[in-house]
């Protein structure tokens, strides 16, 4: 069956790193029969196994075969705490994401030490199609809390300069019937509170369309979403529409905003 003695082939496989092992499997799939846990558990300098490397290389069929091995841990993490599922989301490998979710052992709600989940990564950086795949999973906990008691929706609202919110993804998440869109974190802050502070106008407007969102909620510091929006030293330069939307919902007619750190009372212009 083999052009070389099995013992010699095994010796060669033992010598190879995970990236080289993966290349061998791609060119010669029958080698899978010789793999043992010591091969599958090999890691490179970034802590990645063959399975981690199979995801960005976009080899879902090979990934499917590897997942069938009894020695496989489908939730193995690399040095950056990325599981196979997180890696597939990061590389927008929709087919691999679906394949992993079909594997009963994959933890769809796994958290990193930063409290982020696959849902958060898909929500912020994933394609719309990829998020749809996740949201179809009944075992997905859309209200899972991470660091500080914050949900994926809450974390997405405070990305600031690091994240450009995908409003199609946000709207898609808000369609989940079991989503608690107003769930406060450990400091009593809601997703609306964070969206208001970071000036995410479109997100604020989407959240305010929901009856279950309390625009007047007060956090543990005694601040409302409107006050968080107005509290920035440059809040006077923020989009007026953000303040109008919050004020219309809460009935507030006047708010203090800041221009270069100087407080100034502000109220919307009366319609002519």
Automatic annotation (TrEMBL):
Q: Which Pfam families match?
A: Ank_2 (PF12796)
* ANK repeat start-end pairs: 46-79, 187-210
Q: Which SMART domains match?
A: ANK (SM00248)
Highest taxon above the source species? Eukaryota
Which keywords has UniProt assigned to this entry? ANK repeat, Repeat
Record-linked InterPro entries: Ankyrin_rpt, Ankyrin_rpt-contain_sf
Q: What is this protein called?
A: Ankyrin repeat protein
Task: Give the organism, scientific name.
Answer: Aspergillus clavatus (strain ATCC 1007 / CBS 513.65 / DSM 816 / NCTC 3887 / NRRL 1 / QM 1276 / 107)
């Amino acid at each position: 069956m083999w052009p070389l003695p099995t013992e010699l082939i095994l010796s060669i496989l033992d010598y190879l790193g995970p990236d080289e092992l993966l290349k061998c499997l791609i060119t010669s799939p029958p080698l899978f029969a010789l793999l043992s846990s010591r091969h599958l558990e090999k890691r490179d300098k970034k802590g990645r196994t063959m399975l981690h490397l199979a995801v960005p290389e976009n080899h879902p069929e090979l990934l499917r075969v590897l997942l069938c091995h009894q020695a496989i841990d489908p939730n193995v993490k690399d040095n950056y705490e990325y599981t196979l599922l997180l890696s597939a989301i990061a590389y927008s490998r929709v087919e691999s994401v679906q394949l992993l979710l079909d594997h009963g052992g994959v933890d769809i709600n796994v958290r990193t030490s930063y409290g982020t989940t696959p849902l958060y990564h898909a929500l912020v950086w994933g394609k719309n199609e990829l998020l749809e795949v996740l949201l179809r999973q009944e075992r997905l906990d859309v209200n899972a809390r991470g660091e500080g008691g914050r949900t994926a929706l809450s974390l997405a609202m405070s990305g600031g300069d690091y994240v450009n919110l995908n409003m199609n993804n946000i709207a898609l998440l808000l369609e989940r019937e079991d989503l608690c869109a107003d769930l406060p974190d450990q400091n009593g802050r809601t997703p609306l509170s964070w969206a208001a502070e970071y000036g995410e106008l479109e997100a604020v407007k989407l959240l305010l369309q929901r009856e279950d969102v309390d625009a007047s909620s007060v956090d543990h510091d005694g601040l409302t979403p409107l006050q968080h929006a107005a509290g920035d030293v440059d809040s006077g330069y923020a989009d007026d529409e953000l303040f109008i939307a919050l004020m219309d919902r809460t009935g507030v007619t006047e708010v203090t905003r800041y221009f270069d750190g100087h407080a100034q009372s502000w109220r919307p212009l009366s319609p002519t």
